[in-house]
């Protein structure tokens, strides 16, 4: 039998994983007391397959024994199970906007991060990836502005799963840029994005759920050949 809490939610987590960080932030923001089980992804415990046959983090076990997987569905569950957290807006249209923004980020921005770190030694691909990243982040900036011109969050003053599901990849994207000696700090057209990003990154739930720079760097090495 694998380790779990009898009374609280058990979170099988890895601080280096951007998907798992989504769930850790959501639990913290919703003030859900839970027990954290840190999984070493390079040396997973044998019992982990009993919890989740796919052997992936994040995985959550409810005190009832129910197992919940897939980070975006998990944070939707947390938001809906604990509505007082206000992590999910109420109207169907706003819910649609959350899902649209997250989908956009997942299909347009995240793949570019992988493109950059997989092929950073090829100067042509690197330059191409960089200009595509700038272009897509400007679209993100525009989407943030369209939704709330004052911010700082996607829904203005309300911090929601639209922010949680996307910000964890921003850290990794910017790290990929740094490692490949590229930077976007002085790029124009990202003003709203920069405020959004730095406000979330200063939140205690974000800081406490993130691995150290060294741990993140170590996890990147396997992608960079
Ligand atoms: N679609 C999944 C992705 C989860 C995922 O890929 N997690 C990675 C770590 S970031 C993992 O556990 N991989 C298994 C492994 O490294 O063996 C989710 O959103 O939860």
UniProtKB/TrEMBL annotation:
Do the record's keywords include Transferase?
yes
User: Which residues belong to any copy of the GST N-terminal domain?
Assistant: 7-86
Q: Which InterPro entries match?
A: Glutathione-S-Trfase_C-like, Glutathione-S-Trfase_C_sf, Glutathione_S-Trfase, Glutathione_S-Trfase_N, GST_C_5, GST_omega, GST_Omega/HSP26, Thioredoxin-like_sf
Q: Which GO terms describe its molecular function?
A: glutathione dehydrogenase (ascorbate) activity; glutathione transferase activity
User: Which keywords fit this entry according to its UniProt record?
Assistant: Oxidoreductase, Transferase
Residues of the GST C-terminal domain: 91-223
Which GO terms of the cellular component aspect does the record hold? cytoplasm
The name this protein carries in UniProt is: Glutathione S-transferase omega-1
């Amino acid at each position: 039998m694998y380790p779990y809490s009898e009374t609280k939610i058990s979170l099988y987590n890895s601080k280096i994983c951007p998907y798992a960080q989504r769930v850790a932030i959501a639990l913290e923001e919703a003030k859900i007391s839970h027990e954290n089980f840190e999984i070493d992804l390079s040396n997973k415990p044998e019992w982990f397959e009993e919890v989740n046959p796919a052997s992936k983090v994040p995985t959550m076990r409810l005190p009832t024994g129910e197992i919940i997987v897939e980070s975006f569905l998990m944070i939707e569950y947390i938001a809906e199970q604990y509505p007082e957290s206000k992590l999910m807006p109420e109207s169907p249209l706003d819910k649609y906007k959350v899902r649209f923004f997250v989908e956009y980020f997942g299909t347009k921005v995240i793949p570019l991060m992988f493109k950059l770190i997989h092929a950073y030694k090829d100067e042509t691909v690197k330059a191409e990836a960089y200009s595509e990243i700038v272009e897509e982040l400007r679209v993100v900036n525009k989407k943030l502005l369209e939704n709330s011109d004052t911010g700082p969050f996607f829904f203005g003053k309300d911090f929601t799963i639209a922010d949680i599901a996307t910000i964890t990849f921003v850290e990794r994207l910017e790290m990929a840029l740094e490692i490949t000696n590229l930077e976007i700090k002085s790029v124009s057209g990202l003003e709203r994005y920069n405020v959004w990003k730095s406000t979330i990154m200063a939140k205690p739930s974000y800081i406490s759920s993130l691995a150290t720079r060294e741990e993140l760097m170590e996890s990147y090495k396997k992608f960079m050949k």
